[in-house]
Specification:
mainly beta; 4-stranded antiparallel sheet; two-stranded antiparallel ribbon; 1 helix; 8 strands; 5% helix
Length: 115
């Protein structure tokens, strides 16, 4: 697990929603087995830091209008942490692994002021 900084969240849509959050990045690997593992099991993680349970954050790709008819939308991803590709996992052969990352957060410690 990697502790991020509050500044990491400033690029998300409506960053004020995350004003009191500190992100933690959990890097994982999903390995396809004979049973198939049909679903991504990342929603079953329970992650703790400092004895406190963290809450998972979902950072989705955002689309921004470019004003250019040839390329009307530009995608912006949360580059710091990308979930495993469901398509890549589904198409993986038995024994192959797909890596990914999940974002968790907890409120910042009281009394700590950050700009």
């Amino acid at each position: 697990m990697e502790k991020g900084s509050h500044a990491d969240l400033s690029g998300l849509e409506d960053p004020s929603k995350y004003a009191d959050k500190t992100p933690y990045y959990v890097h994982y690997k999903l390995t396809k087995t004979a049973e198939g593992n049909g679903n991504d099991a990342t929603d079953q993680f329970e992650v703790f830091a400092g004895g406190k349970r963290l809450t998972e954050l979902m950072a989705f790709t955002s689309f921004e209008s470019t004003g250019d008819p040839a390329k009307p939308l530009e995608t912006r991803r949360f580059e710091k942490c990308q979930t495993a590709s469901h398509t890549e996992y589904k198409e993986a052969a038995e024994g192959k692994s797909v890596g990914g990352c999940a974002i968790y957060s907890r409120p910042r410690e009281p009394g700590i002021r950050r700009p």
